Amino acid sequence: MFGIGGGELVFILFIVLMLFGSDKVPEIARTMGKAMAQLKNATNDIKSEIHKGAEANGLDRNSLNSITGNINAQINDAKANLLSDSTNLLGETTTEIDKVKEDIDSISGPVKRQL
Fold this sequence. Notes:
Helix content: over 70%
Radius of gyration: 26 Å
Number of helices: 3
Transmembrane segments: 6-22
Membrane topology: Single-pass membrane protein
Shape: flat
Protein name: Sec-independent translocation protein mttA/Hcf106
Oligomer: single chain
Structural class: mainly alpha
Subcellular location: Membrane
GO cellular component, one term: membrane
């Protein structure tokens, strides 16, 4: 679940319990459950409206699925490009940091302040 292990989940629950107290936690959980249910219902309503509109305009479910697949493929490609760009940026940043460290290490003697 979200890449969180059992120990981390227990720790998070402990922190929540410490912050809000034992009397507020059930109320918060109830509110979050209601919000999740409303979000799910809204999502289902939007999907049904899209499907109704598409069917009214002559599109069937297979063409909608292919369009959705194409959109998802484009989103995944964009994510992959962003991740590779961030990895390249991180590598360049690390290289620059290493250069600055080498410059600092090469300085010998007392360091004078520049005004």
